Amino acid sequence: MRLDRFICKRTRHSYKHSRLLVANGHVCVDGKTECNPVYEVGRFTTVAVEGVILQQRTPHYLMLHKPVGYLSATEDRQHRTVLDLVTPDLRPHLHIGGRLDRSSSGLIILTNDGLWSRRLTEPREKMPKTYRVQTLKPIGADTARRFVEGIYLAYENLTTSPAELEHIDTCEARLTIYEGRYHQVKRMFAAVGNQVTALHRERMGDIRLDRALAPGQSRPLSETEIASVWQKGL
Ligand code: URA
Predict the structure, then answer these.
(1) What angle do CA 6, 11, 12 make, to 5 degrees?
(2) Ligand 1 atom having least distance to the Cα of 100
(3) Which residues lie with the beta carbon below 6 Å from any ligand 1 atom?
(4) Which residues are catalytic?
(5) Going by fewer Cβ within 10 Å, which terminus of the chain is more open, N or C?
(6) By alpha-carbon position, which residue is closest to atom 4 of ligand 1?
C-alpha cells in the first residue's frame, strides 16, 4: 500500500493531512525520512509518523531439523511441538511452513511471513518437496511409473502431479512430490500396496536441510534461500 494511504488508514489523519505529513518530512520509513507519498509500504516496512511507530515487524525465516515424535503444531496439550524447539521470544511470531507427521523427521520451515510461506506450501504453487522414504515391503518395479502417472486421492478427488522416484535400496527411495497434501507420501505408497515405515524431508524448493543441524536444531535461512522461494515453482 502507498505511504499516504497507509498513514490515513492507521491514524486519525485525513488523507490530505497524511500526504502533507509525508511531504513535510514528518514520516520515517525504515529509520529514514521519506517524502514520497506513493512510497510502497511492505509487510515488514517500519513506518513512524512524528516519532510514533505505526508498524514495526521483523521478518523471521528459520529452518528446523524436526526430530521424530514432535508435532507440527504451534501448541498442543499432549505432545511436544516443533515450536518448543525454538527460543521462547520467537515462538509467538512463527507459523509452520509445511507440516510433517509426528512420526516424520527432517526439514521444517518456521516464519512469520505468510505470503512467502504460502508460496512454499500451497499445492497450486507446485513447489517440489523431496523425501527419503523407507518402506515395509520391497519397492515394486512399477512404483516409479505409477507415481509418474499420478495417484488418485479419493478424499480430494484429484490425481497427484507426476512425482519422481529414485530407488536407493530394496526398501528405500527418494521421492519428489509437487503438492504436499495430507499424508501424501504415505497415501501414495499405500495406493501401490506398500507402507511407509520412515519418512524424512530433505528439501523444499531449493531449500535443503542443512547437514550441520542435528535433530532439534534450527538456523536462520540465508538471503539466497529466502529469495529462492520467489524464483522456484510453477
Ligand atoms: N507425506 C506424508 O505422508 N507425511 C509427511 O509427514 C509428509 C508428507
Answers:
(1) 130
(2) 6
(3) 100-101, 104, 183-186, 199
(4) 101
(5) C
(6) 183
Residues 9, 73: one domain?
A: no
Whether residue 207 sits in one domain with residue 120: yes
Contact 27, 21 (CB under 8 A): yes
Q: Quick one: 17 and 65 in the same domain?
A: no
**How long, in residues, is the chain?**
234
Provide the domain limits for residue 14.
3-55
Distance 26 CA to ligand 1 centre (A): 51
- Residue 233 has what pLDDT? 52
Mutation choice for ligand 1 from 82, 100, 103, 135, CB with most ligand atoms inside 8 A = 100
Indicate the SS3 state at residue 136.
coil
From the CA of 48, how far away is ligand 1's center (Å)? 44
Domain total of the chain: 2
Read off the pLDDT band of 12 (50, 70, 90). Answer: very high
In terms of Cβ atoms closer than 10 Å to its own Cβ (0-12, 13-18, 19+), residue 17 is middle
Assess whether 129 and 177 both reside in one domain. yes
| DSSP reduced 3-state for 95 | strand
**CATH number of the structural domain spanning residue 45:** 3.10.290.10
**pLDDT, tens digit, 9 for 90 and up, residues 70-106:** 999 988 899 999 999 999 999 988 999 999 999 999 9
pTM: 0.87
Nearest CA to ligand 1 atom 3: 183
Between the CA of 76 and the centroid of ligand 1 the distance, in Å, is 19
